[in-house]
Amino acid sequence: MTGILKKIAQIDFGLMSPEDIRKMSVTRIITPDTYDEDGYPIENGLMDPRLGVIDPSLKCKTCGSKGGDCQGHFGHINFARPVIHVGFADVIHKILRSTCNTCGRVLLSEDKIEEYRAKFKLMMENEESLTGIIKEVYDEARVDTCPHCGEEQEVISIDKPVSIVQGDYKLTPSEVREKLERITDSDALILGVNAELNEFEQRVARPEWMILTVLPVPPVTVRPSITLETGERSEDDLTHKLVDILRINQRLKENMGAGAPQLIVEDLWELLQYHVTTYFDNEASGVPPARHRSGRPLKTLAQRLKGKEGRFRSNLSGKRVNFSARTVISPDPNISINEVGVPEIIATEVTVPAKVTEWNLKEMQEYINNGPNKHPGANYLIRPDGRKIRISEEIKETVAENLETNFLEYQEKGGTGSYIVERHLKDGDIVLFNRQPSLHRMSMMAHEVRVLPYKTFRLNLCVCPPYNADFDGDEMNMHVFQTEESRAEAKSLMRVQEHILSPRFGGPIIGAIHDHISGAYLLTRKQATFTEDQVFQILKKAKIPLPDKTGELWTGKKLFSTILPDDLNMVYHAEICRKCDECKQKECEYEAYVTIENGELTNGVIDEKAYGAFSGKILDHIVKEYSTDKAREFLDYSTKLAVSGIMKAGITTSLNDEEIPDEAKERIAANLNKAIEKVDQLAEAYKEGFLEALPGRSLEETLEMRIMQVLGEARDKSGAIAESFFSMEENHSVVMANTGARASMLNLTQITACVGQQAVRGGRIYRGYNNRTLPHFEKGELGAKAHGFVYSSYKEGLDPIEFFFHAMGGREGLVDTAIRTAQSGYMQRRLVNALQDLNVKSDGRVTDNRGFIIQTQFGEDSVDPAKSDYGNIVDLNKLVDEIRLKGK
Amino acid sequence: MKKDILKHELVPEHVILSEQKDVKKVLTELNIRKDQLPKINSDDPVIKAIEAEVGDVIKITRKSDTAGKFVTYRVVQQN
User: Fold this and answer.
1) Complex prediction ipTM
2) All domains in chain B, ordered by first residue
């Protein structure tokens, strides 16, 4: 790159004057046609060769550079009559309303004008936003008589989108322009138009420049025509629109010259205004959108920029990138959490640039020899002069051969450049892996590549929670780092193991899920014993070093202890803890009291609380007290053990798991009937006036609350009865619910005992007919069943009324989630836009991009929550315990 | 019936720093210019109550959920 470096001191944003437009124009466009019969662009037409070239074989008539290098040049169209610019119609209206219809001064007293001018100057100097004060001027200048010439003011209104009406007379754009011309430069300032000369003696805006007398014609590079396979030319939407404008402009000019009646001229003028309006914005309110012959609305200037698919959001804030891949994901419990399985077809497509050195020359030659189709191969060779050679099957051998001689020769000469081989992705490369929506930083993590057969990305199940991924067809993206710096940075900051702890709550977000958890429970509970052969098989499969043979029977606890650090000491309550009034601790019959002594699991079972995502205590402890390396190792091993455990024990679930004896069913029915009776009693008491209101509640609210409470208790009680017949021994549904693997006890009791109250808007169901939910009930009935209490269980089946209420509740749930995601998505977007430039400096200061202080200390305590202990710098209790242990 | 807003429990402690030594110390400590500090309007009720002038640096000691107590600084600006 050569050239002079200059620093931009300031940028003026303003309007373009007609002179500016003509000055930058290379040609005046007259002919409303593009190409002649021979396919050559017409001079002074919309495709005039002076507007620039696209074809790389042609030279630009204006700048002389080749197509591709020439960025194009503007032309212009002279309008026969001026036209209002849609984008400014609103501003024009506001300005005219704030100025005198006769003398053109702002409708404020001389003193007021001066006062405002001073204020504007001050605010401009302070770089403050002027929108508020401009609005203030507009509001204040709405008076009936002009303070300068004393003239009565006629009301000026706007008829969307572009008609300015004074009284009942519609002003022509020429008249509007005349009015705007009368506004003095100094008055214009407080109307929001900076018309004064700047320090370079240039004017950046004048009110009348909002009326177009000349239209810039964008270069052909902005509106390229495409040639279809049939050889037919298809023009860009903008070109179509410009053709329309030119045609009408031409007709208007001819009619005016021929002295046509006023009416005809005005009609044509209106038509020109329509075309110019839709040229700028084809979705302006009040104008029918201009359409293509096929009936498709044209995509004009505003449509190119606006919205999610517009230039800003789709091409500038976000771009398509090279060296990326996307495919369906599927699980692989055999790879590490740090890894990602990459299909071979992707690995041969995306590449890593590798510099050729003396030491890897042979390896690089091998890659080139493999060519672009065989896996560890290469696709391109970049020579020191920057030339890129595509390695094909035909030339791969010669390229590989020449590389050695050329490289050595180049080195001999002392060349400073380097040969770069774009080699295939191979095992151990670092890549970035991402699943949308990328809501937090764990949505993009660095993984190590494992090239695998088939066509899906493979990932370890423990990383599903941070990505919020499942395998029902989810797709994910992969990006390959192209520089050493990025690889190094990603490896130290973005690797999966560095994100086991979430910055949201300072605990693990990566961890065991589903079968890992039920598996670990089945492995470590009391009755689980294994023969030495079985143990060795399990350990071998998990790639854990084998212990010496003893010939004894192993317990699952001992098996699990092999992967715990030798100096680990912990005590906690497992997920299956029943929270008894008095804890029996080590004698707990449920094995819910977990003790780990010097790396030996002596008591309790392993479940969600031990190493599950979001709540794993052992995992949390290992990350914080040992290292992320140890934690990754622990997760990789423990999940493999759990899977082996589940395979040895076997797990299955069916509706039989939700079966309870008749005796239980009777007790549940009795319990529910009692509750329903109680609801009736409450209703009765309310009707008789015996019910007493709770403090701060109306009588009706009190009744509702009491009923909800009674029915809630009834369901819980029924659930408890059903639960008492469930056992953790044989019932795998219960194992899964209690260990935290999947589902909850509530789900099971709803299947077995009673579904319970259905709610809409957080309360019992009251909507439907007048004073009743369904015609099956009496008006004003307050009973349980009439307002959505589902007495049945899912297993028994719901009766039609219950089913209807259940559908009402279910519908609300679905609608709520749909609304919530949309709302939180937009909220996130606004937050990101507001916060994206904030910066934490090395001394803990938080600043914005202008260097202004936001916070003198990050988070007021300089704590990185992802490195904290559940939000705190240290857990003092834990620390004291440890010191005590060491003292012993 | 005018209340002393400075005594309200939700109003943190505001103290005007002396221009010479305190302000300089704070600015060198944070390694910034005065205009980079967060602003507070001169018509802010607390600013009026403690009679601070435009350009004064105010030391604010407020309760913090994370740190317990937190000290920050704001410079009074003409609104």
Assistant:
1) 0.91
2) 5-77 (3.90.940.20)
